[in-house]
Design brief:
The protein has about 280 residues and is of the alpha+beta class. Helix content is about 30%, strand content about 30%. It is built from 7 helices and 14 strands. It has a 7-stranded mixed sheet with strand order 1-2-3-4-5-14-6, sandwiched between helices. It has a 7-stranded mixed sheet with strand order 8-9-10-11-12-7-13. α3 links the parallel β4 and β5.
Length: about 280
């Protein structure tokens, strides 16, 4: 059965809003001004909706893109959701089917409706943490300083940029103008022996949770664990302020190593499939 988004939002929050952060955030922000225009949920049992559900995200994409997440092995529930999907997906460029259950790709309803072109396990899983006690501490380092960005930091970044010491693509004075679709964006500056060495950006997309969206260390400072100091300092800052940090999508192997090094736990792997309608 289809269920109201607000009901699912309350269920996610009650169960574990840290673990279900992305679903909560997307329900809260979905609309004409966000990348996701609409979200629909189908469940098997209203008394226990998170045991079996299908989420359909309709993206605000002129070429057409829809994402389906099947948190169920129930063929009947999946079939109901896919039948609805067929009604709204005419002209859609691509449909992404995501699930932790590889066997659903052999289900008749999936085979009948869609041509699955490829499947893969992502290299950028979500990492999360619930409390400061779960963090893995690093030895103190008097050469390392991390702090919320100040006006002096912004001036120093401009000076370093003018001197050619920064990366024009990934680290420049314009990074502080970023706000995206989020309620609040925080920046933290890394200094090593007083010199600008990197930064961290985190966004508040839902509730009191801040998602670490970007961790960057200048090439000459890499290989010394400085990214982990950024993440740990920010994590401590969040817990002290009553916020909860999350290491969003670890976009490469180095990010994954940093997340694990700091004690963040990996969300169970999801299998992704690209699919096109057969009709």
């Amino acid at each position: 059965m289809e269920i109201d988004n607000k009901y699912m939002l309350e269920c996610f929050r009650e169960k574990d809003e840290v673990f279900y952060y992305n679903s909560c955030k997307n329900i809260e922000l979905a609309g004409d001004d966000y990348k996701i225009r609409e979200i629909r949920y189908f469940i098997k049992d209203k008394a226990d909706p998170l045991s079996d559900y299908v989420e359909i995200r309709i993206y605000d994409d002129e070429d057409g893109f829809i994402s389906v997440y099947a948190a169920t092995k129930d063929a009947g529930l999946l079939c109901e959701a896919l039948q609805y999907l067929l009604k709204i997906s005419e002209g859609v460029r691509e449909i992404s089917l995501r699930t932790p259950f590889a066997e659903i790709f052999s289900y008749k309803c999936v085979f009948d409706y869609f041509n699955v072109t490829e499947t893969e396990c992502p290299v950028n899983p979500v990492y999360y943490i619930h409390c400061a006690d779960e963090l893995i501490r690093l030895p103190g380092n008097k050469d390392v300083q991390v702090n919320p960005v100040t006006e002096k930091d912004k001036l120093d970044v401009k000076e370093a940029e003018a001197a050619g010491h920064l990366d024009p693509e990934s680290f420049n004075s314009e990074i502080f103008d970023y706000c995206g679709f989020y309620k609040d964006t925080k920046f933290f500056i890394l200094r090593v022996k007083g010199k600008i060495a990197g930064y961290l950006r985190a966004e508040n997309g839902f509730s009191n949770i801040y998602d670490i969206g970007w961790v960057y260390v200048l090439p000459e400072y890499r290989g010394h664990g400085y990214a982990a100091y950024l993440v740990l300092f920010f994590s401590d800052y969040c817990f002290e302020k009553g916020f909860i940090p999350q290491y969003g999508y670890a976009i490469n192997h180095e990010s994954i190593k940093v997340a694990k090094k700091c004690g963040y736990k990996c969300d169970p792997q999801t299998i992704y499939a690209k699919a096109l309608e057969k009709r």
